[in-house]
């Protein structure tokens, strides 16, 4: 076996050749090189397939190879080793020797200076040899620099693909390139680039320091049995790394760990996707061992700790759980309700017949509007959490879930309420939350979140004496601070109640109508982590995992379900993955005393959700404008502006039902709004914002619908290049369809009467184009408001455009616990975000 230099590559970096014959029978595998690597001491380590390890000084190899190229010093490794050893009076140590005629090894453990001294003694014509190899030595050093830089992670190396060296394709010119570009030779050739003109298949051409470098057999690493890196290996945008201190891990371009294997072999992944779209995941913020997350965002905790134990570790002072500790008579009427934990406070029946009943997740106690329990708390809680649902609110506009009286007659010291109306400064139109009485106001101050009838919710709050932070589920409201001049009231008066409060006369009022599954009280403020841990345990226990799914539906709801003319109006946000079964999304929307909201329309534009709505009830003022809101997460909403509608100096004296749409021609955000301007009837107008802040708006432009003098609740959308307008003929109280070639018309009405079988008394259409089926049929869905009797949907499938006026399915009522009214359904741009 011999070592030498490829003479054909004298114009490029040195290519060290190891040649020789292999022992054994032809056709059978012989001894070869298993892998080659450079250690952190600068030693070249060669492992043979028979497990023998050869250690060489990289400096010595480069120097010896260079001198041999110039002076042809020796051809046999054994001879060269013998010459070096004989010439080195310092007895250069040999760590390997050939045992057979064709097996040899060169091991030089001395530094490069020692190896060169030994080589000098073996070469009679040292000066001429040195001069002859000067250029080769420089190129060899360049290769070593590249190799060392690559190992250290400093060398720019950008793989650009294959190069045809015969046709110079892609064309590479001397001195022209991007630093680090590397091509592999796919076709051998003699194209001259920066002095190199002999290219073999597998060679590389690398641009560095202003010129192209020949890089012999650059692609050989692709067939190496093992690839060693001192720190890490980059594969595309991902980094694979491992060392003695850190486990094996894969990181993405942002540095996030996607997979990790610990030194003990334990596997750690961020999430393991399954073929059905679900995933196995671990949530480090809660103590569940493993979580199976479905494609719809719902989850099941696998091998999770006992929910009660998770809650108990946070030491509630009072814990009422309808599943345990409730004593009832034969008909289920509650006689007493004991705390799950030792508590200084007692709970007894005050009045009425609260009834315990089974739910899908366990048990609850039903309050019918005439029932209440009493409790003995003597201080305002630091934290309170309830698992409950409102049903109807005919008994009270401000139902109390739990509270305590004060010495100020008729003013509770504190209360957790299912609704808190607008009369409270800074209140919501429809809200639930925690209220503290003060000396400055009969209403005190409160932290609130928007409420929705019929939905099981986890309502809670923390109070530190100065600030109230309310939350529904894991959605937290902005904390509300107590005025500096307001002194909180203390507990006293007639005592504490669950399900009602005391009026000034001492009689019971503000009865709660709904169901209560659990109620937890602490005499301290839980930390954010503690609070969320308790809520997660309750969510899992009662199957109340939040969904922020593929569809969002923004609507409004009055205080009294089904009573359109009465009550207080406010936002109800719903979410669904199939567009049929919907869940409540907790929201925070702060109103002043003059505003409420109806006819909520939602869309996504400019990196945030935007909502437009009727600004006020019919008789509450603000009839000449609509309101605009915005939100970054679809939960917490900030007021933007009121948009006044006026034409030729004449203001609208009724404005309602704005509806967003995007014009696909220019991406412009627009809306239609319905106004009575002057002496005519309600008509539909187009308006659009003139700035990204949604503050300045265009003048209303009339959209004409000939023959329809009373038009409300229009919904425009563009399908396959054609504009479609669903609208309500207010005179006949029926939904019709018109079409046009532009969003502002002119529109041609395509239907009349009860053409779709939806009947009269429906309004607020919201339509979706669901795509085409396998047969090319257009699929449509429209949601309809039955004016307080719920939201229904109807589908149509058929050839375009005949499907518009063809057969639609009979309306089906949505599966929604509450009865929302007039809203807009959109595809969620961030399904399951924050779920």
Task: Describe it.
With 835 residues, this protein is mainly beta. Helix content is 10%, strand content 40%. It contains seven helices and 60 strands. Strands 19, 23, 24, 26, 31, 32, 33, 34 and 38 form a nine-stranded antiparallel beta sheet that branches. Strands 22-25-35-27-28-29-30 form a seven-stranded antiparallel beta sheet, with no helix packed on it. The longest helix is centred in the first third of the chain and has 19 residues, at 134-152. The protein is globular and about 105 Å long.
* Principal-axes shape call: globular
> What average pLDDT do the residues reach?
78
Radius of gyration (Å): 40 Å
Describe the main β-sheet briefly: 9 strands, antiparallel
Distance between the termini: 67 Å
Structural class: mainly beta
Fraction of residues in β-strands: 35-45%
What's the number of extended β-strand segments?
A: 60
Unreliable spans are 1-24, 69-116, 121-145, 220-225, 422-429, 559-567
Number of helices: 7
Output the keywords.
single chain, about 850 residues, mainly beta, nine-stranded antiparallel β-sheet, seven-stranded antiparallel β-sheet, 7 helices, globular, disordered N terminus
Write the layout of secondary structure elements.
Layout: E1 2-5, E2 16-19, E3 33-38, E4 43-48, E5 53-57, H1 58-71, H2 77-87, H3 112-122, H4 126-132, H5 134-152, E6 158-164, E7 181-187, E8 204-208, E9 211-215, E10 232-235, E11 238-241, E12 248-251, E13 257-261, E14 267-269, E15 271-273, E16 279-281, E17 290-293, E18 299-302, H6 307-312, E19 318-321, E20 326-328, E21 334-337, E22 347-351, E23 355-358, E24 363-368, E25 372-375, E26 383-390, E27 400-406, E28 414-417, E29 431-438, E30 441-450, E31 457-463, E32 467-472, E33 475-476, E34 480-481, E35 491-498, E36 501-502, E37 508-509, E38 513-522, H7 528-541, E39 551-557, E40 570-576, E41 583-585, E42 588-589, E43 598-605, E44 608-614, E45 625-631, E46 636-644, E47 646-647, E48 650-662, E49 669-677, E50 683-687, E51 701-703, E52 711-719, E53 722-729, E54 734-740, E55 748-749, E56 763-772, E57 778-785, E58 791-798, E59 812-813, E60 821-827
């Amino acid at each position: 076996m011999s070592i030498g230099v490829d003479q054909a590559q004298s114009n490029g970096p040195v290519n060290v050749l190891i040649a020789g014959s292999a022992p054994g029978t032809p056709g059978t595998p012989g001894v070869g090189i298993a892998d080659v690597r450079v250690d952190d001491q600068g030693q070249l380590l060669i492992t043979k397939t028979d497990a023998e390890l050869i250690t060489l000084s990289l400096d010595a190899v480069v120097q010896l190879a260079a001198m041999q190229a110039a002076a042809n010093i020796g051809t046999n490794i054994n001879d060269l080793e013998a010459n070096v050893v004989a010439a080195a009076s310092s007895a250069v140590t040999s760590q390997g020797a050939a045992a057979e005629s064709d097996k040899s090894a060169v091991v030089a453990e001395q530094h490069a200076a020692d190896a060169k001294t030994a080589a000098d003694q073996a070469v009679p014509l040292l000066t001429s040899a040195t001069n002859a190899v000067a250029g080769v030595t420089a190129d060899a050093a360049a290769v070593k620099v590249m190799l060392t830089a690559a190992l250290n992670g400093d060398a720019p190396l950008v793989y650009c693909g294959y190069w045809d060296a015969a046709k110079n394709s892609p064309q590479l010119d001397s001195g022209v390139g991007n630093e680090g570009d590397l091509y592999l030779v796919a076709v051998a050739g003699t194209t001259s680039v920066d002095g190199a003109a002999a290219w073999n298949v597998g060679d590389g051409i690398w641009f560095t320091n202003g010129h192209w470098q020949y890089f012999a057999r650059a692609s050989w690493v692709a067939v190496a049995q093992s690839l060693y890196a001192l720190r890490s290996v980059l594969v595309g945008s991902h980094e694979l790394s491992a060392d003695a201190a850190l486990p094996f891990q894969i990181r993405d371009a942002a540095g996030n760990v996607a997979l990790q294997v610990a030194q003990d072999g334990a596997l750690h992944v961020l999430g393991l996707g399954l073929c059905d779209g679900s995933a196995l995941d671990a949530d480090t913020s809660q103590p569940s061992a493993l979580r199976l997350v479905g494609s719809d965002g719902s989850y099941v905790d696998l091998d999770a700790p006992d929910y009660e134990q998770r809650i108990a570790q946070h030491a509630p002072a009072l814990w009422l759980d309808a599943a345990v500790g409730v004593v009832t008579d034969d008909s289920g009427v509650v006689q007493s309700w004991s705390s799950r934990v030792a508590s200084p406070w007692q709970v007894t029946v005050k009045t009425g017949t609260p009834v315990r009943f089974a739910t899908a997740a366990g048990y609850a106690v039903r309050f019918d509007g005439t029932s209440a329990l009493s409790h003995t708390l003597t201080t305002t809680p630091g934290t309170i959490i309830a698992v409950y649902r409102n049903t109807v609110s005919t008994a009270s506009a401000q139902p109390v879930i739990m509270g305590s009286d004060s010495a100020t007659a008729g003013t509770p010291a504190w209360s957790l309420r299912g609704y808190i109306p607008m009369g409270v400064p800074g209140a919501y139109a429809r809200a639930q939350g925690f209220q503290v009485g003060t000396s400055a106001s009969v209403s005190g101050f409160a932290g609130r979140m928007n409420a929705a009838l019929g939905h099981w919710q986890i309502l809670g709050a923390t109070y530190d004496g100065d600030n109230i932070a309310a939350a529904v589920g894991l959605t937290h409201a902005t904390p509300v601070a107590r005025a500096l001049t307001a002194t909180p009231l203390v507990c006293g008066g007639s005592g504490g109640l669950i399900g009602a409060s005391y009026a000034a006369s001492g009689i019971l009022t503000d009865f709660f109508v709904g169901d209560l599954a659990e109620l937890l009280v602490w005499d301290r403020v839980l930390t954010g982590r503690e609070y969320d841990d308790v809520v997660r345990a309750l969510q899992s226990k009662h199957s109340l995992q939040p969904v922020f799914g593929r569809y969002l539906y923004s609507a409004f709801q009055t205080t009294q379900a089904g009573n359109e003319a009465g009550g207080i109006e406010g936002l109800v946000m719903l979410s669904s993955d199939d567009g049929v079964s919907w869940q409540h999304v907790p929201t925070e929307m702060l109103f002043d005393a003059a505003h409420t909201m109806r006819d909520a329309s939602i869309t996504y534009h400019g990196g945030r959700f935007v909502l437009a709505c009727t600004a006020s009830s019919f008789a509450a003022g603000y009839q000449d404008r609509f309101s605009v809101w915005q939100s970054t997460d679809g939960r917490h909403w900030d007021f933007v502006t009121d948009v006044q509608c006026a034409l030729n100096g004449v203001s609208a004296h009724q404005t309602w039902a704005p509806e967003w749409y995007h014009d696909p021609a220019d991406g412009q955000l627009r809306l239609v709004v319905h106004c009575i301007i002057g002496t005519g009837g309600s008509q539909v107008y187009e308006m659009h914002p003139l700035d990204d802040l949604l503050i300045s708006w265009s003048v209303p432009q009339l959209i004409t619908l000939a023959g329809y003098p009373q038009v409300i609740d229009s919904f425009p959308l563009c399908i396959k290049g054609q504009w479609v307008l669903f609208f309500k003929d207010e005179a006949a109280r029926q939904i019709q369809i018109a079409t046009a070639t532009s969003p502002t018309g002119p529109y041609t009405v395509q239907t009349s009467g009860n053409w779709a079988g939806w009947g009269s008394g429906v309004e607020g259409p919201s339509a979706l184009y669901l795509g085409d089926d396998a047969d090319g049929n257009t699929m449509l869905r429209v949601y309809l408001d039955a004016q307080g009797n719920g939201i229904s949907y109807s589908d149509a499938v058929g050839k375009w455009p005949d499907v518009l006026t063809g057969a639609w399915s009979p309306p089906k009522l949505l599966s929604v616990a509450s009865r929302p009214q007039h809203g807009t359904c959109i595809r969620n741009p961030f399904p399951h975000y924050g779920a």
